[in-house]
Specification:
- This protein has 84 residues and is of the alpha+beta class.
- It is built from 2 helices and 3 strands.
- It has a 3-stranded antiparallel beta sheet, with no helix packed on it.
- It is globular.
- The relative contact order is 0.13.
């Protein structure tokens, strides 16, 4: 993915995801083993968070993953927090 493609994706995400509107910085992260696209987001209140995106074909597996993460949080196990 070249810089223009990344820029276009970021602009589309900012327009469609209310939590990203007003973000002062969205920076792609090119590290990690997953096939997800990852972005560091500096939100308008100064809070930093991680945004992960994935292809629609991965949706059922990601739903399961997020349910597991939510259950881990419910049990107070340390795990990543989701953005929304």
């Amino acid at each position: 993915m070249d810089k223009q493609d990344t820029y276009d994706i970021l602009q589309e995400m900012m327009a469609k995801i209310p939590e990203l509107q007003g973000a002062s910085m969205i920076e792609p992260i090119h590290k990690g083993y997953s096939t997800d696209s990852k972005f560091k987001v500096q939100r308008s209140g100064g809070e930093s968070c991680l945004l992960r995106t994935y292809g629609w074909s991965q949706h059922p597996a990601k739903q399961t993953e997020y349910r597991i993460i939510a259950e881990l949080h419910r049990r107070e196990f340390v795990a990543h927090k989701r953005l929304v």
